[in-house]
Structure formats: structure tokens, C-alpha cells
Amino acid sequence: MDKDSNLYTFLFAAFMVLVVATVLAYTSQSLKVLQNENIRKEKMQNILSSVGINVSRDESEELYKKYITNELALRIDGSINEKISPFSDIVLAKELKKDYKNQHFPLYIAEIDSAKYYIMELRGNGLWNAIWGYISLKNDLNTIKGVSFDHKGETAGLGAEITKDWFQESFIDEKVFNNDGELIGITVLKGNNDPKNENKDDHKVDAISGSTITGDGVTSMIKERLNNYLPYFEKLNLNSKMD
Amino acid sequence: MKKLKNKNPLFLFVSKGKEPLFSKKNRQLLKDPLDDNNPITVQVLGICSALAITVQLWPAIVMTFSVIFVMACSNVIISILRDLIPNRIRIVVFLVVISSLVALVDEFLKAYAYDVSKELSIFIGLIVTNCIIMGRLEAFALGNGVWKSFLDGVGNAFGYGAILIAVAFFRELLGSGNLMGYQVIPDFIYEMGYENNGLMLLSPMALITVGIIIWIQRSRNTDLIEQR
Predict the structure, then answer these.
(1) What is the structure's pLDDT at B5?
(2) Interface test with A, best of B98, B104, B119, B169 (most A CBs within 10 A)
(3) Quick check: B114 and A23 CB within 8 A?
(4) Tell me, what's the pLDDT at A214?
């Protein structure tokens, strides 16, 4: 057949696409189970790491069952929806696109050495793509026990440094509410006067040079997502006052 | 004994058994891109990824190996198909081959080396946009045999990777005082007043570092300097 004819070109293209599509679809489908398993275990690993328990991905399932005592799916008014599983049914990225009345937020409650911690899920935007993570508060619902951040595609060595321990450790013991009970969140700030982060009441941590936009993303992500949990926190506070 | 010597198991790869596997010409294919014909410093291709992923050494090394794999495979595939590919859609064919290889690498990493795949995130996808691969397919693999194309792919990927790793080495060392994520500049030097140079972490310094490498290369190898 003439190699320059239209028919040959079409046939070649069609055949090539068919072969490539089959190979890719087959690989993707056959590896899906393994990939999802990795993602599920990593989620458990991230939740645990936000309360300061660092485990390998393989151990995460076992320890997750041990430490996470309760999982709640919260509606925007703070009520609990028992019908859906917070761990597997709530995909925060999709929830945030829904009408706010239909949104659900996952809350995980951990018990470590008989201390109770509340773990909230975070999601926001960095410079290139989504950033997300978990933040855990101590029983006073104000002091941060720990955070874990992750990202889809921040620049390596700059924005991607938010996943590093030294950055995440600077959030520990910071407070998210001010003395009047107003939600301030944590500001990731350049030119912070407190680069060693000794002042734990200033609601500020030191930024990473070269990653201003990722840092700003972290700041607004923490404030916006915690805002979603305020109704539930108020209920908890009312209950504890009545006790 | 003499008979056995002739039955080299690699005869399949050598065109018509005339040329030895690592003849001078073939060695040149591997060696040339490392210096005289380096894709980054001489041909000035693939500069974008040299800027993007050279902040740290480890991603640069993994990127190098991924590019070696993709480039060697795509060169071989195109070389096998070179008599079948219709001329008018050859660029589309190149793209399809490169991007499916990249997608395959990505899927396998996600399933079997999840941590590495997270480390690389978008860089794997960025291999598709690496113009060196496209350039070698068009300039070399389309007109040469399988073994030569393989050598050419590996050589060019190494030439690219060598510069990448060199730039990343200096940027990580001077920018954050680390190598592969571990601190290498001892604490007492910081106590004496040394500071990491934050500018090294930003992309302009990648260009300047590449520029210095080009400078050194041309002062060593004067053949590369253009005649007026």
C-alpha cells in the first residue's frame, strides 16, 4: 500500500490508537486495586501523623484501628449524618463543590493515652494545584496537637516543603482561636518576627522562602476549613458547660 | 573456540553482523551527547525542566533515570516502526508513543513504588514535554537502526541528566546546605556567620548555573565557540 495515501495514514492512526488504548486501559485497570490500597493506607497514615503518630504505610491500618475511636460525618449545621461513612464516602474536594447545605465534613476522634484529640480534614489551593491535609486539636478545641500537609504538585524544594516535619512542627501548640473565642487560624507569614516560633500565642508560623503562594494557601485553607466545624464545636462546648 | 567466538548472542542487534556492537561510531553515539553535543548546553533543549526540578538533587536523579527509560524505549519503538510510520502524522505518532510510555511509568510507580511516585508528582508528566526526546526521535530514530537508536537515546538522556544533576547539586548545596535532603554543611560554619543563599532556590539561578557550565565547557572545548 502507498505509505503516503490517506487510507494508509488513517488505518495506521486507527490501529495505533487501538493498540495504545488497550495497553493503557489494561494496565490501569489491573493496577487499580493496588493503587487504591496505597491511597487508602496513606490516608490513614496522614490522619495518624496529624496527631503525632508517625508510622509506615503498611502499619497504618492496624494502628488506625487502635487509636481512632470515632469517625463522624458532620453537616454544615453541626449535626451528625449517621448514614455515610466519613472515611470512605466523603471526598472533601467534591463536597466543597456542592451547595453548602449539602456539604459533609469528616471528623475523626483519636484517643491516645486517654487524651482525646479532634482531627479535621483540610483542603485548599497551593500555587500549582490542590493542597490538603489534617489538623488535630487538643481537648480544649483550641490548641493544635499536630498537622500533616500534602500537595498534588507544588514545586520541589519550595512549596513542596510544606510536607516536611520542620514546617509542620512549627504549628504544634499554636492556638486557632483568640481570647475572645474568634477563629483566627494560623497565618504562614514571611518576615515573621518570631522565626524560631517561640511565641505560641501569636497565631503565626514562619513561612518558607520562595513559596509565598503555597504558604498563603495553607493559611486560608486552615481558616476556611476550620470554619466549617464551628457549629459542631459550639455544640460540644455547650454540652461540656452543661456537664 | 574460534567458532564459538563468532556466535555472539548479541548478533541480533547488530545490523547484518558487519559492525561490532561497540564500534567507534557506536561509542560516539553514547559519548557525544555528554560533551560536544550536549542537549542542554550545546543544543539548548530541555531547558524548562532544567529550571523546574533542579532545586534538589534527589528529584533530579530520579528524573534522569525516568528520562533514560522513556527515551531509550521511545527511540527503539520509533526505530522499529520507522518504515511504517506515515510521514504526515509522524509527530503525532511520536507524541502518542512518548506519552503512553510516560503514562505506563506513572501507573507502575503508583502501584509498586508509591513513595517515589509521590516524590516526583508532576515531573513524570513533564517528561512528555521534554523536547529532547521529540528531537532525537525526529533527528535520529526515524532514520537509524534499533541498536544505534537505543545508544543514541541512552546517550542523550545521560547528557541531559548529567547537566541536571550538576545544576541540582550546586543549587541544593548552596541554597539549602543539604544534599539529598541531608545537611552537609556543618553547623560550625553557620555559627561563623555563613548563610544559605536563598536565591539559589529560585529559577533564575538555575539559568545562571547552566550558563556557568556552558562557559566552562566552551573554554575547555574551543570547537564549540561560533566563528564570527
Answers:
(1) 47
(2) B104
(3) no
(4) 93
Nearest in space to B93 (alpha carbons), one of B102, B84, B105: B84
Asked if the structure places residue B16 within a domain, the reply is: no
Q: Residue B218 falls within a domain, yes or no?
A: no
Say how many domains are in chain B: 1
ipTM of the shown complex: 0.71
Q: What is the residue range of B147's domain?
A: 36-209
pLDDT tens column, A172-216:
999 999 888 888 889 998 876 777 777 788 888 888 888 899 999
Q: Residue A142 belongs to what domain range?
A: 69-242
Q: Phi and psi of A143, rounded to 5°?
A: -85, 135
pTM value is 0.71
Residue A223 lies in a domain: yes
Judge whether B220 and B48 are in contact, CB under 8 Å.
no
**Tally of domains within chain A:** 1
- Tell me if B114 and A38 make a contact (CB, 8 A cut-off): yes
Q: Who among B88, B108, B201 is closest to A210 (CB)?
A: B201
Check residue B10 and give its pLDDT: 52
Is residue A54 included in any domain, yes or no?
A: no
Interface contact A9-B59, CB threshold 8 A: no
